[in-house]
Structure formats: C-alpha cells, structure tokens
Amino acid sequence: MKKLSLIFAAVMIAALAGCAGDTTGEGGDLAIVGNLELDAASAGRTIVLIWSAVDDVDGYKVYFRADATGSYTELGESTTTTYTHNATNAGDYVVIAYKGDDTSSANSNAVSTMPNVISTTYTIYDNYSEASTYSGFIFGETSGTEGSAASAGFVQDLYAYDESKGDDDVWLYSGSFGTFGNGNTCYFQEPGTTYGSCDPDSWIANSYRLYTGDSVVFVKLPYNTGENAYVKMYGLSVTADPATNNGTIVSFSYEYQPKDLGLTVFTSNAN
User: Fold this and answer.
1) What secondary structure, in 3-state letters, does the chain show?
2) Which domains does the chain have, with CATH numbers?
3) Per-residue pLDDT reduced to its tens digit, 116-136
C-alpha cells in the first residue's frame, strides 16, 4: 500500500509540473492558430496582430510576455482574426483559439517586437577632451561606430558637446546641428516613468542635455524615405575625463528598432 501511495504521489507531482508550464491554457483539441504576424498598421507603441482563422470556434485569446522572458500573460480576447495592443514595452505574442472550455492543442507561432539589443559599451568624448578622442557616433542595426565629429568623412548620427566648462553635464547634439553639424539629423526624448517605450510624436530637436544621474535617452533616426528607426541609449554613464581638466566622457549601450515598422517599444532595461 505504501508503494502504491508513493507511485500516486509521483504521478500527481508530474501532472502538476506539466500544468505549471501550461501558461496560456493551450493543450485542448482545437486546431493550432497559424500565420500570426505583425500587421503593417503597427507603428509606435501600437501593435496590430493578425492571424489565420480556425473553423468553428468562439474566439481567440492573445498572450504576451514582456522582454521575451518569463511566462505569458493573457492580454485579452478577440472574436475576429486581429488584435491591437497598446504596448508599454517589447516582447513576444502568441494566440490560441477557444470554444467553450476547449482550446488549441498548442500555441500559435510566436511573434516578437523585440529590438536588436547591442550590449557593447561605447564611449564618446566631448569637445574639451583630447583631440585624438572620438566625439561622434553612428547607430547601426547590429553594431555602432565611434568616430570624429570634426571629420567631414565621418557622418555621425549624434555627438557629445559641452557648452560650458567645469560642470557635471554634457550635451548630445544631433549630427546635423552645431559646430560639427556635418552629419545626420536625429531627435531626442526623455524617458517617462518606464523605459520600455517612447512617444512616437514627441521629440526634442537639435540637442539634449545629459546629467550624471541619467540612465536612458531615446533617439529618433529619420531616413530619406520618410521612415524612422528608433534607438534607446541605456546604461548611460556621464563622467569627468581624467585625461583633461574639463573633458567629459559619455558611455552607453543601445537597443535598435529597425525602420521597417517604426516601432517605439524596447526592453524594460535601464542598465
């Protein structure tokens, strides 16, 4: 009898473990939702999902996991084959069909709004640092490039510039603005209460003042086609340049949302 009890307990533990991973309620007998994708109407923080219909169902449940980690949580339901999410940060989406208590046998394919996360630490210097240091920066989709904003051959997206000596702040200048404005135009935005998204319609032109306590700034990169890519500079560090009396060093990593959809959602990470 003791042996049977142990076997029963082991079976129950295994069953509970299986349920614990069943975070979206899938595992029923209905067909799997197919062709989940981002609709071209997606832009900024507005994420529009579309998918193929499953016959003879009551509707669909949409799930999301922030930063593409952890468990999925239900966002809502739809009786059509589309769903709009006003997102506060990037992540993954899946959809299941339901009819009464029955659900799809498995999740749909996952769709991600995650940016490219470039974790390399880059460093630029202001105009009071040594002339041999790099002040300019170009944001690439998978890596960035430091260079001299004073050089006509380096077409920067932004550069570091200090408007006064001896203080604890520094300015980020648009690549087309100011003393070394031979580069590309960009725009800046201060983060709100969270770091996972920015307002696609509210930008600061020309320059942005960085302080030692800042950790994040958003950047819009316009293209000649009229499309925009968006960047989150994170892990910001503003420190005095020990090699000079008045120079300032700006270090950062960044996340890059390509221009194909113009999304302004990012991870929740600040550092």
Assistant:
1) CHHHHHHHHHHHHHHHHHHHCCCCCCCCCECCCCCCEECCCCEECEEEEECCCCCCCCEEEEEEEECCCCCCEEEEEECCCEEEEECCCCEEEEEEEEECCEEECCCCCCEECCCEEEEEEEEEECCCCCCCCCCEEECCCCCCEEECCCCCCCCCCEEEECCCCCCCEEEEEECCCCCCCCCCCCEEECCCCCCCECCCCCCEECEEEEECCCCEEEEEEECCCCCEEEEEEEEEEEEECCCCCCCEEEEEEEEEECCCCCECECCCCCC
2) 23-112 (2.60.40.10), 116-257 (no CATH)
3) 999 999 999 999 999 999 999
